[in-house]
């Protein structure tokens, strides 16, 4: 089942669009957030990556291009369809250039959002990820063992800053936002054994 996160601080718009998407697109898992902070927390809390984010740029806790940039920095590979209440103030071409999957003015109404969402979800089938380097595979293996960045740096004789850089690259290549999602993606792709992942889940839930 495809999953969509709608980040918009207008409750009526959010609920109306969510209901329409479920009616028109069939079974989807719809997540909702009224702020960028809550949306990013929801993304980080998921056991598997979200397929698409619908993002209003004008939120209580973030406005304009900075809203998009903050989300892209947290999840660089995540498809984001930008929504805006003002066509004139938002440079759509710049958003696309910066990696947005699309741009839809709210003035077109919620019906206009259905087809772009349908198209993006259909194309959201993930391609074969970029392969991990040997060093990244080693970092991933220790991550699955539940090792902290400090312990990983000691075992691989790396600085903690270098470990963080490797983890960011792993997250980007696996199209995930956090350590738990990275482990689950690694299991799905056959990079680690399911028993190792289960041990990781047990340790992190304690």
From TrEMBL:
<keyword id="KW-0238">DNA-binding</keyword>
<dbReference type="GO" id="GO:0006355">
    <property type="term" value="P:regulation of DNA-templated transcription"/>
</dbReference>
<dbReference type="InterPro" id="IPR001789">
    <property type="entry name" value="Sig_transdc_resp-reg_receiver"/>
</dbReference>
<dbReference type="GO" id="GO:0000160">
    <property type="term" value="P:phosphorelay signal transduction system"/>
</dbReference>
<dbReference type="GO" id="GO:0003677">
    <property type="term" value="F:DNA binding"/>
</dbReference>
<dbReference type="InterPro" id="IPR016032">
    <property type="entry name" value="Sig_transdc_resp-reg_C-effctor"/>
</dbReference>
<feature type="domain" description="Response regulatory">
    <location>
        <begin position="3"/>
        <end position="121"/>
    </location>
</feature>
<dbReference type="Pfam" id="PF00196">
    <property type="entry name" value="GerE"/>
</dbReference>
<dbReference type="InterPro" id="IPR036388">
    <property type="entry name" value="WH-like_DNA-bd_sf"/>
</dbReference>
<feature type="modified residue" description="4-aspartylphosphate">
    <location>
        <position position="56"/>
    </location>
</feature>
<dbReference type="InterPro" id="IPR051015">
    <property type="entry name" value="EvgA-like"/>
</dbReference>
<dbReference type="Pfam" id="PF00072">
    <property type="entry name" value="Response_reg"/>
</dbReference>
<feature type="domain" description="HTH luxR-type">
    <location>
        <begin position="125"/>
        <end position="190"/>
    </location>
</feature>
<dbReference type="InterPro" id="IPR011006">
    <property type="entry name" value="CheY-like_superfamily"/>
</dbReference>
<keyword id="KW-0597">Phosphoprotein</keyword>
<protein>
    <recommendedName>
        <fullName>Response regulator transcription factor</fullName>
    </recommendedName>
</protein>
<dbReference type="InterPro" id="IPR000792">
    <property type="entry name" value="Tscrpt_reg_LuxR_C"/>
</dbReference>
